[in-house]
Amino acid sequence: ASFAQIERVEKDVNSFVTLDKEAALKSAAEVQKKIDAGELTGPLAGVPVAIKDNMCTEGMLTTCSSKILSNFHPTFSSEAVLNLQREGAVIIGKTNMDEFAMGSTTETSYYGPTKNPWNLNHVPGGSSGGSCSAVAAGEAFYALGSDTGGSIRQPSSFCGVVGIKPTYGTVSRYGLVAYGSSLDQIGPVAKDVTDCATILEAIASYDRKDSTSIKREDTNFTEALKADVKGMKIGIPRDYFGEGLDPQVKEAVLKAAQELKAQGAEVEEFDLSLVEYAIPAYYVIAAAEASSNLERFDGVKYGYRSQDYDGLHNMYKKTRSEGFGAEVKRRIMLGSFVLSSGYYDAYYLKALRVKALIKQAFDRAFEKYDVILGPAAPTTAPKLGESLADPIKMYLGDIYTIAVNLTGLPGISVPCGMDDKGLPIGVQLIGNRFEEKKIIQTAFTYE
Ligand code: GLN
């Protein structure tokens, strides 16, 4: 069924970098045998899944939508993918993304942009745009995405699907190609909250191969699928409804809050503070970590190597010049600059201090509230091409999602309406660390 739908729509939406029908059918047949033998009984057994192309899949091309990895076949699979396969998931392919997950529109991909299934003239969001469009277009029943600054929640909001960014440390980052290691988390993208909770339960695990992995006893997320918000305290940050927020998004998100109130939640506005500092702090920290993480792409160990060079240094230079796209180069330059001697204190250390203050602001908020509710993004999906022309404007679009990564908190985006162009709007629910269950329960009740 998935491949029949892919046949119909993939040429228009371009959700995938790699599709492997033969491998998928083979794996489905093997899973079927295990189901018949009673060895696989879980809800994900035999269900087709699409994986973002920054997660290693053994033997299957893993490009990060970059030319520099355009020939990379990993010898191992990421832990999150293995966790799904243990449950009998069937991988149908790898989804398109912004190059190395840097971007908000899936337009920085070496493989061309993905289109929003609701309107092909608009972007699907990013960087997990291919994962979200694959689910929205019915090509995959669910997908994995990664979220460093909003890359699961924002495209989920733009594509009208549900996406969760878990508490940092919940899902192993082993085998996820690193962008900003202190911020990156893998999470599910699916059609509804029930599917998302089920998938998250499957991929969450303690993993010694990821030094930031956390041992949790409470990853039975499906237990939170209860339609009940009576007494749930929901805080709405006033600072999330100011300048730059599209009035239609504002209206739909506040309406969602009203509906939760009608169902028994206590809803109240409050001042979160420091919201305007999240973007500068994030773009300093994320770029710094990216510049370091991307040092490994030198044309020696794996991936693309320039064909025409003169000596070792020239080989590095040409390989990286030819292999990386413009947005990735911008981040490497910015990151190298903020980490350089003389600027380290002024930019990188200062950003870390701002991050600590933002965390304190959220800690204070969670003393009073169970859940924080706001928009996932300030607008609905922009037209193709608009964001590439103005990267700073694109960065500003991350305002509601990135603080959640800086603080390691869990967040979920759930569809809450449409604008007058027929493009989906998402409401974001943010929880305290390890309190995915509260946001899942609230989202499930709302949905
Ligand atoms: N848009 C943000 C960035 O470009 C977030 C991307 C992400 O979460 N991977 O860095």
> Tally of extended strands?
11
- Report the CATH superfamily: Amidase signature (AS) domain
Strand order of the largest sheet: 1-3-2-4-6-5-10-11-9-7-8
What is the CATH architecture annotation?
Alpha-Beta Complex
CATH class: Alpha Beta
Described by the principal axes of the CA atoms, the overall outline is globular
Which residue ranges are poorly predicted, with pLDDT under 50 across at least 5 consecutive positions?
none
GO biological process, one term: translation
Protein name: Glutamyl-tRNA(Gln) amidotransferase subunit A
Pfam family, one: Amidase
EC number: 6.3.5.7
Structure in a nutshell:
The chain has helices at 2-13, 21-36, 79-86, 129-136, 153-159, 193-203, 247-262, 278-293, 312-323, 326-339, 344-368, 391-396, 402-406, 436-446; strands at residues 16-19, 48-52, 90-95, 142-147, 162-165, 185-190, 233-237, 266-270, 371-375, 411-418, 424-431.
